[in-house]
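User: Some background: our group keeps a shared notebook of sequences we're curious about, and every so often someone picks one and asks for a predicted structure to add to the entry. Today it's my turn. The entry only has the sequence so far, pasted here. Could you supply the structure so I can complete it?
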Amino acid sequence: MTIRKGVVWRFTVVYLGMLLLGIAILGRVVQLSVFEREKYMEMSREQTVKNEIIKPSRGDILADDGRLLSSSVPYYDLRLDMRSNAFDREAFFRDLDSLAAGLAGIFGDRSASSYKRLLQSVYRRGSRYYLLKRDLTYRQMKQVRQLPFFRLGRYRSGLIIEQHSKRIRPQRDLAARTIGYVMRDHGGAVVGIEGAYDEVLRGKPGMRLVQRLAGNVWMPLNDRNTIDPRDGMDVVTTIDIDLQDIAENSLRKQLVQNDADHGCVVVMEVKTGDIKAIANLEKVGEGEYRETYNFAIGESVEPGSTFKLPVLIAGLEDGAWDLGDTVDTDHGRVRFYNKVIKDSHDGGYGKITVKRVLEVSSNVGMSKLVMQHYGDRPRDLIDRLYSMGLNNKLGIEIKGEGTPMIHYPGDKYWSGISLAMISHGYEVKMTPLQILTFYNAIANDGVEVKPRFVTELRYHGRTVKRFGVQVLNPSICSAATLRKARLMLEGVVEDGTAKNLKNSVYKIAGKTGTAQIADQSRGYRQRKYLASFVGYFPADDPRYSCIVVVSAPSKSVYYGNLVAGPVFREVADKVYATSLDMQRERLAYAPVAHDAPYCKNGDAEELERVFVRLGIPHEPERVPARWAVTSARDSVVVLRPLPLREGLVPNVKGMGLKDATYLLEKEGIRVMADGWGTVREQSVPPGRKVVPGMRIYLTMSLKDGNRQ
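Assistant: Of course. Here's the predicted structure to add to the notebook entry:
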């Protein structure tokens, strides 16, 4: 091969190689720009622009009077965009000193000079989304917007305020387990009303376009395709905050006094099934109790003597016995096979009537009655109990309801002593709420209603849905049997095991219960007890039913009338004392109990000065708060602090217009009132969350010169 041919060959190889490389590059360019263009454009957009979900405001959970039980309180992040298209550079430097001083005054975390240097540094860097302050309150946010330079608005000042929310309970731990919570990041636990109504509370999210800036910070873009979120609905519960507080404090006091393991109390409105109070407390330390579990709903245990009433009703319905029939309790002991059943009263009660069996809670009397009439046909008794729905769940919306259990003849747990044990509340399991629902039916003329926790759903104050009363059983027994059952329950308090609850003001009907708790390892030998009382009041016109259960009291006192009864009585006394419609007849003939002068609620110091000047007796002489609520007790005016919470509507009822307007406008609420004198009603209930632009209408006591 000549030199010339060699050069040509090498040039040809290089040329062909370059040509092939060029073709390959051109082909790849065509592929990227034509066939894979959308793919890489989308990847590019994802790196710089993306759709961001806008979380809606979660709805509130309200008490029966509109006060907040759970709410998402708004908080705000303060950011700065120093490269806004309309940024006013001249105004920034003109107002810089005043702006820095204002920020220092609002937050108090650094000096005015320090804020000035920070703002200058942010301006020099040209930051587009600088986080200046996190978690501002609504009041702080309003103050920031009024500062020099920032009041020019978002575009001229670069001020960006972003809202987010935190879930709070204004009433703290009251009914905590019933109100509940949702934990999406920890196994998805949903508890209580928060969990049951999560779908309506959480609302529907929106969407907006955001752009990534330096430092992996995402800034919202103004975009016409933004989808606004739909806020969640408010859930109005049946809970009465004042009654809940009484029930919880009374239960806690009794648990501490008896060093008990845990306990619960539930108060139900007879006609509607509304749960007005539900408290569950468990020992977490020496003398310390908290809501850790909803025992009233979830703990299915042997109820003991409170189950005697359903058994007696079953026998009355079947014609097996009547109230005047007698049974010999001997000396308070009876043996069935290898089981000895005893009465708590040493020596027994002798020969007593069926009515007296329930009044003194005789285990021997109950077991002898049941074995005598149902010993050879146990299915008849169990079928009758089943027909009253005692083996069914209530079907409440709150998750975790315990499953009731009543053994049936022929199943693997049935034995020769099962019937005798069931007669006084063993080999049976029910939750406190299930027992209460049955007793509530006795008070409600035999109509068993489903416990109701929620009455309505609201959207921005407008009622969207109401939940009516739901009947589970229109008649648990005949009218004749019902009258006898109520007579027996009244006898328990009048002359039976609950005589300590008897009072001369109103009548209570109910049943005590003392069950021995089986220890997992030692059976019944451990001698732990479940003390309970369930009943209703006033007995002659039932309005409320209530159950109290105290588990494992460690002191020597463990009977239901002494451990659970006092909680029932304290709750009942408070309800009766605050329900004027229950006392119409007594009030009609009651003498005037006090002659203390009427006075408005208001500024505590001003009230005290007036009382001292006029010589009006008052207590206390110094109120540890700026604002006070007044009430009369005999000839003394009693003052107590008016609770106020930032961001919530204050209670101004009973105040003069001047004080009411001051408190409301201080929270940024626009006030409208017609008349003068004393505030009788406020259109927005106290405790409601303050929202921007909120208005309130006050109904005054005086109008056109006449008292309304």
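Suggested note for the entry: The radius of gyration is 36 Å. Residues 3-35 form one domain.
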